[in-house]
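User: Sequence recovery, please. Input:
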């Protein structure tokens, strides 16, 4: 059987141009029809068909899925685990690095001392109880986390001393720099982000008590919605999917991802994250309503090309729309769902990380055994996009407000013991752009 003929590279000027909408289109269905037609024409202009290009993405994914399914069958761990000590000492092995890049996720063992993490957990309880949070809690502020059905499970708290101490700690900065370093951050004469500096993206906490029932969260992604196909910078970021050079697509390439806009919504993230992450504040077993991912970074190519196939209606992007998370489903992505994999057991002080484009979910649980408590802290390196958002973060920090990416709940504005500007160290000041 002869090898497929891959057309030579075209310059972008030779291919049909793409329309783009830098703000949310007023007529979503019309815009979807228009951009899908243009994307198909561009792929055709490269000398390939949509089906041929999708087949390349599908084969890459199929190989990864079969590896993951076989590893599970053999009882092997799918998630890479790396000790914090090896990251700090620079002694992570080449084999471990290769696995992280193949799987796009990892657990950092002993990221913080277990006693430190358990202490932070107690301090958060004292912080919310001391400020009568439960007397004033008004219910979930967004539709997404509201679906878990707990009372509450996600606390809209951002500025506790515990959270800020973790965000600005040397141990967190070391891990974030290590994770950022897995990405290609310089190309085309541009430094797309600074891997050694994080923007201290503030997020919430989760506390799920023993005995809890939780509905979990369905399979989804967080890097954006229709803007991934419709804005100019994302069209450039995913250029290899649409210009006949899919073999060159690299999910670890940050080019054009760190400047562009994102369509606003209640579940958006204004920052560019290399990895999403959380730090465990309790011990958690792998079967107690924990995070699952599809540990295949290349799956993004499959997800981006799938709506262009002829079985998808012309005004539909496989269910992706604005003001909701990007869904991944059995209906449109059954191959990907075969690889959905839980994290291993974790202990308080371990941290869990997954590539920002990765499909993930939280499993439902009934009568949970043990607490399920985490602080959400990602890796969000300093770049133009994150520098702009840092101005909003600074304003929220100074007034104790909810950051602008999140519902306007503002519980902490009057809390006297929230973390104060005078308590920032150098890492904290740099992360807020001070």
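Assistant: Recovered sequence (434 residues):
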């Amino acid at each position: 059987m002869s090898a497929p003929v891959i057309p030579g590279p075209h310059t972008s000027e030779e291919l049909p141009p793409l329309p783009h909408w830098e703000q949310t289109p007023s007529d979503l269905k019309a815009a979807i029809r228009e951009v899908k037609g243009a994307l198909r024409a561009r792929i055709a202009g490269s000398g390939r068909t949509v089906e041929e290009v999708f087949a390349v993405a599908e084969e890459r994914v199929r190989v990864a899925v079969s590896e993951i399914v076989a590893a599970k069958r053999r009882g092997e761990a799918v998630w890479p685990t790396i000790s914090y000590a090896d990251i700090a000492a620079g002694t992570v092995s080449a084999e471990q690095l290769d696995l992280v890049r193949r799987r796009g996720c990892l657990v950092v063992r002993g990221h913080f001392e277990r006693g430190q993490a358990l202490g932070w957990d107690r301090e958060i309880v004292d912080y919310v109880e001391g400020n009568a949070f439960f007397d004033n809690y008004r219910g979930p502020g967004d539709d997404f986390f509201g679906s878990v059905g707990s009372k509450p499970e996600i606390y809209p708290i951002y500025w506790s001393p515990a959270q800020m101490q973790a965000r600005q700690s040397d141990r967190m900065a070391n891990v974030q720099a290590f994770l950022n370093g897995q990405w290609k951050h310089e190309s085309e004469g541009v430094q797309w982000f600074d891997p050694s500096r994080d923007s201290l993206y503030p997020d919430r906490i989760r506390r799920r008590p023993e005995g809890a029932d939780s509905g979990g969260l369905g399979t989804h992604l967080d890097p954006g919605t229709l803007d991934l196909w419709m804005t100019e910078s994302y069209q450039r970021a995913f250029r290899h999917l649409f210009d006949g050079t899919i073999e060159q697509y690299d999910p670890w390439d940050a080019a054009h991802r760190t400047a562009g806009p994102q369509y606003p919504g209640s579940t958006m993230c204004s920052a560019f994250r290399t990895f999403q992450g959380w730090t465990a504040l309790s011990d958690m077993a792998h079967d107690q309503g924990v995070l699952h991912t599809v540990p295949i970074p290349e799956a993004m190519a499959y997800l981006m090309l799938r709506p262009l196939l002829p079985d998808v209606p012309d005004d539909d992007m496989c269910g992706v729309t604005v003001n909701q998370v990007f869904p991944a489903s059995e209906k449109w992505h059954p191959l990907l769902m075969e690889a959905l994999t839980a994290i291993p057991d974790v202990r308080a002080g371990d941290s869990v990380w997954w590539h920002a484009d990765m499909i993930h979910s939280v499993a439902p649980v009934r009568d949970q055994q043990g607490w399920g408590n985490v602080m959400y802290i990602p890796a969000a390196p300093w770049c133009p996009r994150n520098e702009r958002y840092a101005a909003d973060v600074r304003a929220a920090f100074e007034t104790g407000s909810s950051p602008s990416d999140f519902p306007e709940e503002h519980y902490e504005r009057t809390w006297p013991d929230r973390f104060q500007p005078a308590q920032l160290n150098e890492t904290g000041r740099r992360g807020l752009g001070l």
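The domain at 13-431 is CATH 2.60.120.330 (Jelly Rolls).
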